[in-house]
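Changelog entry: the Alpha-N-arabinofuranosidase record was regenerated in this release. Current contents:
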Amino acid sequence: MKTEKRYLVPGDYMADPAVHVFDGKLYIYPSHDWESGIAENDNGDHFNMKDYHVYSMDDVMNGEITDHGVVLSTEDIPWAGRQLWDCDVAFKDGKYYMYFPLKDQNDIFRIGVAVSDKPYGPFIPEANPMKGSYSIDPAVWNDGDGNYYMYFGGLWGGQLQRYRNNKALESAILPEGEEEALPSRVVRLSDDMMEFAEEPRPLVILDENGKPLTAGDTERRFFEASWVHKYNGKYYFSYSTGDTHLLCYAIGDNPYGPFTYQGVILTPVVGWTTHHAIVEFKGKWYLFHHDCVPSEGKTWLRSLKVCELQYDADGKIITIEGLDE
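Regenerated structure tokens:
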């Protein structure tokens, strides 16, 4: 499906959107790309983001977008090394909690928390990362019953392959071929939103025969960029396939899964791959994502965009064409 798309921040490079409705407004929490001069590599060193902005809007396709400025930067974070990647924000009991991946001073990704009284920040970081946290791309789901779940993980530069059963390996191991794909992780958060309430669990994606997806199934297996939303009582887990450049989704009956693969949300865009958020606002569903058209294909200089997302009568997401021409 070809659909109208809108670039949201034409004057700057923003990517990896997390999007939520707070107080009747839409708030966007993206990564902030800049030209750092670092050569491209599979570890993602060229994605050298160092701060976060917050944006808000009242009308998705036509309204003005407000830039609330820098709300958190690496200089603010006591344990910081480098690379503030894809964040998310959750609201509970009058406070807003920003969860962010950041390499510590040993170049290991951890997940940190920063807190604000307002959805547009500024966010004040905790002195240390969350205990037992690792890898990247935290996305938080409020299940509406007092429980909040974090989904996280990313391959290659995201370092997920360096862990098994939440323990660091001596050497990274990436499954291959018919071996089971390395799944993302899901964990319930503590009541104070500051730590994990349990050991993170694997979030398994099954094929149409009920078997876990394999590592060689690169057009369907998880790579990075978790997101969860709910539609008609079902949980939709969506993610990027990374090196095959697709946004896909799987459906499950509870926040822990397992989830069964359903199809492609977005075909490849200009650039290496895309992150996303799916949100309902004023009765319509939207897919927020990014591409590299404005930077003429520079994968580390990405631009935030949005389009409407639609479901068919069976609750399947209608695939959106990533290329506009």
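Residues 277 and 288 are 5 Å apart (CA to CA).
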